[in-house]
UniProtKB/TrEMBL annotation:
Highest taxon of the lineage: Bacteria
Protein name: DUF721 domain-containing protein
UniProt cross-references to InterPro entries, sorted A to Z: DciA-like
Any Pfam family matching the protein: DciA
Organism (species): Shewanella pealeana (strain ATCC 700345 / ANG-SQ1)
Length: 150
């Protein structure tokens, strides 16, 4: 008989270098969240904790301007990380990586708001249209009243 499938988390923590890689990935993810809590504002969307090697935390950012802003706050970040999370941390290195812009997830603006004027025009168009298109136009026009209620 075939063996039942194993949970991926169990496999990661059992064989070879995978436990070390999984542990380091979890640590980097935790450090990324922590650094983004320490640094507030728009800079948090422009950085990523990239690595931790030999007591040096490597932070990547999208531009040199953001790197300069992070460099000004390095002593504060270093002190907090040493006190709360990583006492063996000796330095923080900030590197510019423009390719982070490609992977950044941009928030989609809300496009579900319709003005009263637009709703009136859509409703008028729906009255002169037949079939499923008319039904869909009427539902679209109804969004104007729903957006004002919320």
């Amino acid at each position: 008989m075939k063996k039942p499938p194993q949970d991926l988390s169990q496999l990661l923590h059992q064989q070879g270098n995978m436990p070390n890689l999984a542990e380091k990935a979890e640590l980097l993810l935790h450090l990324d969240h922590y650094v983004k809590q320490v640094l507030t504002g728009p800079v948090t969307e422009q950085l990523k904790v990239a690595n931790l090697r030999q007591g040096i935390l490597v932070i990547e950012t999208t531009t040199a301007a953001w790197a300069a802003r992070i460099n000004f706050q390095k002593p504060k970040i270093l002190q907090l990380l040493q006190a709360e999370t990583l006492p063996m941390l000796t330095a923080i290195e900030v590197k510019v990586n423009p390719s982070l812009l490609m992977y950044e997830t941009k928030r989609k603006p809300a496009h579900n708001l319709i003005s009263e004027n637009a709703a009136a025009h859509i409703e008028a168009l729906a009255e002169h249209t037949e079939g499923t298109l008319a039904v869909k136009l009427k539902r679209l026009a109804a969004l104007a009243s729903r957006s004002r209620q919320s």
